[in-house]
């Protein structure tokens, strides 16, 4: 496997399973599909060729959905799909279709909903059996080759399904009809009576408070997922209400994650999730979207609390992305695998002897104590729980506590740890790296661009802004059709697949963030252009809200997601981004679209507020008071930099900032936000106008007064007459 470019069937380390002749997946771009290109299973990619054959031959479809960084996807592939006996059964009974869920989230979304309807659960790898008309009648996640532990294996399951298909096909088709009808019914979201107000914010806060783990941070039971959008909601809720526990829950969770095994203490970046409540043993894959959302959470938490650990963690995570997840042309790769050399986590684990060999006896012993490294190992084999001699590095106590124990200044201990980390990183780089999924996805890149732009503003870091702008240029150059519509996936010079709601919503959000970091008006103009395409092709003209796929998509069900998963839902991000963009450009149509999203999901959000935390973040902004801060001044002048720096150094999540150069008569921003035309400086000094609902307070040349006006709450200011 080529660690930089995903699957390479010609690589000298090609495994036994690659000896089978290539199947149709060999012509695909997805690294996940290419991992299955030499299976003896006669795989088809999703497409009409597969479904035509199934119809002509009267066969059911075996649909397998996964992604390249998924550990259990690899297990099922090696155990079953590479096995000639299983492959023969599959080929004899089914037409087999393989889908990369990251490349085709539209397909994954439909059939994951079907799995929940059929079984009440879901997960990857996702196995769906369905008719040639795409109607699902059976769902499961991982299925072993042989029956064990109460699980029916493929060798037993396939003959049973074959017999039922031959003798009771009509019943299976009828069951598929019922599932599809249920999904279509669930996709209908007529606007409901009622209103979403501060009460739903309070309810979400109270629920988070009840399920918060006061010892370990995080919410609910293990496994523990980062869900940074929950933390961002709580930060903003705490800022809005002054309720200190909201901040406490966030701080406890962010500290625990940074010090735990879920964080790569040597190379930085976050693993996907923790299998335990202590954030200790992760599933080791690293996803781009987790890095992006966690950078946002740590950056906002730093701004809200001033805690340097949060700033450092955001910077470390960015360092990982820029070092290991960035394409030479500027886009960001999707993921790094959990496995290397056939073992989950092998790249990241250490024996104590390895630590001592790299750092020396004395320094290695001290480093091992700090990071919980022990001779028998702290990592237990699963299943079984046997100690392996391997260790996951984690900080069970903050460095200040260790500095006190060792009677050394904390700064000196921090230098000691950093020197040891760099030596271990250099040693680890000589290991065989996990495979990298190097496809570039528009939606996940949008999240990373937004995160970099936010961090660039808060940390005054031009390199972060440069990386965000390069990535934005990459997406807008390589993943946009001639008619301006976005595409979803790029790899190896090939862009394709229709964009989803997430692609549009996340890129609009990203462009807003990049504008606020750069004050280049073109980003706002492009955001408005993308918003028009989004409304034209994804809006439900009958009931409101955005469909996940466009009006020309070929899927069994057009769904309208609002529940958050690992990433915020597209409708939630769209509501927030369109409202903010409407405020920044005085575009009432965009604001009204956001308001209609707010109304259409009243019932869904009211039933389960904590499952819609990003929606609540947008709702909090819309409820107000929110502020438009328009700064006029000479670009680069000291007073202008002081004014901009003042607003950026304060936690003001309900404020958007627009800059109008005072040394131009008709600057570009006027053509995007016409209301800035008459914004002028006072006495030729940088001047701030703080407005709410387009009604502005008295302009000020005092940065402190500007911040005071933004921090004020209560009734919006009266308009100046």
Topology, please?
Elements lengths: L30 H5 L7 E3 L2 H10 L3 E6 L4 H11 L2 H10 L1 E6 L4 H15 L6 E5 L5 E5 L13 H14 L1 H18 L11 H14 L16 H14 L2 H16 L13 E2 L7 E2 L2 E2 H18 L2 H17 L10 E2 L2 E2 L2 E2 L7 H8 L1 H10 L28 H8 L3 H19 L7 E2 L2 E2 H18 L2 H17 L8 E5 L2 E5 L2 H18 L2 H18 L31 H16 L2 H13 L1 H6 L5 H11 L3 E7 L4 H11 L6 E7 L6 H5 L14 E6 L2 E2 L6 H9 L10
The gyration radius over C-alpha positions equals 26 Å
**Total DSSP helices:** 27
What's the total number of strands?
A: 19
Q: Largest beta sheet, briefly?
A: 5 strands, mixed
Taking all residues together, what is the mean pLDDT? 91
Order of strands, main sheet, comes to: 1-3-2-4-5
> In terms of per-residue confidence, which ranges show pLDDT below 50 for 5 or more consecutive residues?
1-18, 713-721
Determine the N-to-C terminus distance: 69 Å
